[in-house]
């Protein structure tokens, strides 16, 4: 068996994340696991004996897992490295909500132990691939785990777009933008724009207009086999495409953005088989006071499903 290796990606702008990275590196190294760190982070972390790699997808190749210390933004950055290699991401939340993270800061030591002993599951999350066209030619390609958003670039003017589903025009919107999201992204930008929360195991794409001036401008849930297109009308102001809030492309008038299911998923390492409902309750602090659960008939076996925070 070859040498075990873990890539550690850190939000080095947070002192707590740097301290956590130092602890993770120390404990993984003590367990005989080689630790990789992207160049640009090694100096800030200040650890010796790490394998410094260029900040490209090659850094994650043949690694067992990518441990991510930060918030969802840091995990989305790490997904750029992990997705091409198919390496699972394990997020430790040092931010705010941290919806994509699997562990919290107080669980750091136990999380490292789970990595050392390989006690985690891996699930795949749907992504979207994005192609930008203009005048019949391709001007850019990118992808997203959460969402691709066509937004107006000029605050004072409305964006004019036409949405298309599977080659057929759907509606013209005067709006601030349009979010095309995955189920994973349903709790991110799409949620803020008024879209529905979609459970991760549901394969679908969301189309959510932002502040649209139109009679028909409700959020839409379409098939994962569909192709969604948003065309920026020729007489509208310049627009901008944002993917996961990280990758951006300018969209001149007449540009067309096509979104379809991604060819490669993102793999997430899971430590706990927590129901998504419980994750929603915990992350958003939802009130569940008064919940009684399934009512059992007299004489039936005791037990039943535990509620949020009660055993799962």
Report the helical percentage: 10-25%
What order do the SSEs take from the amino end to the carboxyl end, as H and E? EHEHEEHEEHEEEEEEEHEEEEEEEH
CATH superfamily of the largest domain: Probable inorganic polyphosphate/atp-NAD kinase, domain 2
Order of strands across the main sheet: 3-2-1-4-5-6
Would you state the CATH class of the largest domain? Mainly Beta
Q: Name the beta content range.
A: 25-35%
Overall pLDDT confidence: 92
* Helical run tally: 6
User: Rg, please?
Assistant: 22 Å
The total number of structural domains is 2
Reported for the largest beta sheet, the result is: 6 strands, parallel
- The assigned structural class equals alpha+beta
């Amino acid at each position: 068996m070859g040498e075990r290796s873990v890539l550690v990606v850190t939000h080095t702008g947070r002192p707590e994340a740097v301290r956590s990275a130092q602890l993770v590196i120390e404990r993984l190294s003590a367990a005989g696991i080689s630790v990789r760190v992207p160049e640009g982070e090694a100096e800030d972390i200040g650890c010796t004996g790490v394998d410094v790699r260029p900040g490209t997808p090659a850094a994650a190749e043949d690694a067992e897992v990518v441990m991510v210390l930060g918030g969802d933004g840091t995990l989305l950055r790490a997904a750029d490295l992990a997705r091409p290699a198919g390496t699972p991401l394990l997020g430790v939340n040092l931010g705010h909500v941290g919806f994509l993270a699997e562990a919290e800061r107080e669980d750091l030591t136990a999380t490292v132990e789970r990595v050392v002993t390989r006690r985690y599951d891996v699930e795949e999350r749907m992504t979207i691939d994005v192609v930008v066209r203009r005048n019949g030619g391709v001007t850019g390609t990118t992808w997203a785990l959460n969402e691709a958003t066509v937004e107006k670039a000029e605050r004072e003017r409305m964006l004019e777009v036409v949405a298309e589903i599977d080659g057929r025009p759907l509606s013209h919107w005067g709006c601030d933008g349009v979010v095309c999201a995955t189920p994973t992204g349903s709790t991110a930008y799409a949620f803020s724009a008024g879209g529905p929360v979609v459970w991760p195991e549901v394969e679908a794409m969301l189309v959510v207009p932002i502040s649209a001036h139109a009679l028909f401008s409700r959020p839409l849930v379409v098939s994962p086999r569909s192709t969604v297109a948003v065309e920026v009308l020729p007489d509208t102001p310049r627009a901008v495409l944002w993917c996961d809030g990280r990758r951006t492309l300018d969209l001149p008038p007449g540009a067309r953005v096509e979104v379809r299911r991604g060819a490669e998923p993102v793999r997430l390492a899971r430590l706990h088989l927590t129901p998504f409902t419980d994750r929603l309750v915990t992350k958003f602090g939802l009130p569940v006071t008064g919940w009684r659960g399934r009512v059992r008939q007299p004489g039936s076996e005791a037990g039943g499903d535990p509620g949020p925070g009660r055993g799962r």
